[in-house]
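Supplementary notes for students who missed Thursday's class. We covered one full example, reproduced here. Read the sequence, then the structure, then the short commentary at the end.
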Amino acid sequence: MPVKEDAEVQAYEKIPMERIRNIGIMAHIDAGKTTTSERILFYTGKIHKVGDIDAGTTTLDFMKQEQERGITIQSACTTCIWPSAGQLYRVNLIDTPGHVDFTAEVERSLRVLDGAVAVLDGKNGVEPQTETVWRQADKYNVPSIVYVNKLDSIGSDFYMSARSIKEKLGANGVPIQIPIGTEKEFSGVIDLVKMVAWHWENEVDPKTNAIPAPTKIAIPADYLDKAKEYRGKMLEQLANYDDEIMMKVLNGEEPTVEEIQKAIRKETINHQIHPVLAGASYKSKGIQPLLDAVVDYLPAPSDLPPVIGTDKKGDKVQCPADPKAHLSALAFKITTNQFGKLCFFRVYSGTLKTGSYVYNATKGVTERVSRIVLMNADEEEDVTEATAGEIAAIIGLKSTTTGDTLCDEDHQVLLESIKFQDPLISEAIEPVKRVDMDKMAATLMKFCEEDPTFHFYTDSDTGQSIISGVGELQLDVNVTRLKDDYGIPCKVGAPQVSYKETIRKVAVCEGKYIKQTGGHGQYGHVVFRFSPNPGKGIETEDEVTGGRIPKEFIKPSLDGFVEATSRGLIAGFPAIDIKAELIDGSSHPVDSSEAAYKTASAIAFRLAAQKCDPVILEPMVKAEITTPEQYLGTVLGDVSSRRGMVTDTTTKGNAQVITAIVPLANMFGYINALRSMTQGRGIYSMEFDHYQEVPKSVQEEIVKSRAQ
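Structure (token representation):
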């Protein structure tokens, strides 16, 4: 398992599609994603010295904020080469954030990847954010393997971590390796497929900060029985899905290595199993076998079904993974650097060349491709083209944003876009110096383009500039970027929750807008049936019969309702989960207009405030709080005082883990309160769970404060 030579790294364009792997590294915060990615870059020859998170020298965490905070904020892309079985494989790797505030980075990365490596902290197994990213991978049908990291840490347990895959994710994790040694004695892994062991020495190369390649050894005698036991379990799992393996197992025969690898690969791609591997990335142990597993078991673009898009008529069309097919590509990330706007994209079919023109089917505009580059974090390498199955970046696109489809204008296709979570909290923001207002606004708009979950707007009632996002950390990072990276110091107000509104009763509401003037008047008349629509968002239906409303005014009527929902019914918060059926109305042969019907719909919706029993909804978060046992009662009491509902309490070592559903409004600054209650020993993580009706007393307070 040698370190790559520079000459090999230049071979990107010579590698066929079947030897390309588009993978992402995903996990809970602090599980070791970036450390694992850093070691992958080193052992593939992409870098020549291993970076360190604590020292702020990692390649993929290149932002100043990432280096100072020691966390990943933006997903980082890189391309590297790995040799296996005498062949070179191209690995396009994306390192994603673990913090829930930056979940959009994970979402858009998984949308364009073919496979994923889920990294677990060997002390904790599956954690809350692991569940979140796993669900995101399932959403896009991304096959994954699991890498249990930090097995050299005190309290680490490979077998507990492997069990947690089934217990917490409901997924079929199948160990194909087991560790040799535990905690400080962790020294290698046993390959259950080939029944050999890999041993790593502990000496670190002072020039590279890395441990040399592993030594292949016989399985230690005291681990032989355990290796046979887990190999038997692995074959039993494969036999459940593979007839050839099943027949050999039933007949007492030993499948060949090739047969086992073929079965693991097939069932991993089919989402039947998730191979589980072992390692300790910080000590550079387990990385080479992990890379071998990536090329052996995760799919190439050609292994997956063609992506489905729609043509101009709305008919479904296939986009085969063929460089000679018509172009279809998806823009999944926008960033800005010193050279301008950088658009990351995945080519699903066809070929995109430097200097060519590409059609943005989402925006309906043609753009010129000035340069195509492969990215290694913040470094660029020019290439002449990107073909089906490849991930690269374009410099020069002006109108393209996240989720847009790029294609041939003569063969237009629209791919499914990417949906992101709505903002949950907001803050008022203003520059310290008034002369910086325009500069601040322009910079914040760039941030919005880079991160679809970050919003910036001006409140029409107060005239304040508002930023909103999914978490406090996300807003804090962007405010700090304004100051440190752009020289714009800003002041922010206290975080405010993004409440929503909805209705609890069905009612028929009529809206009429009649205005007479000297010339043509205005006439719009609609009748809606509004009903609760839990969890399904805003939906509209046209139920008008007999031409009571002319066809050309149906859409404006429905649009008028949708626009009115943004202003709410009680306190001005956006309304959600309402079904609106347009059931009747009338028209005037001269005075009817689109604007009049839009206004009539808004009037009808305002009546819902009186007839549909509207309520305010608040975002609820799922919090997982870990505390030493002696502080359990205090922490539980505090959760209750925050209107939290405890759903589970479990023991992990000498600590207690509390799972609770709590209003987001009551969790601002919680980490300081938790540290105070637990003498600095408590930790927590949280993620958005659902919207829930606020208690009547809280609703009255919210309405009163909004009226002031």
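Commentary. The chain has 17 helices and 38 strands. Confidence is low (pLDDT under 50) at residues 1-10. If anything here is unclear, bring it to office hours.
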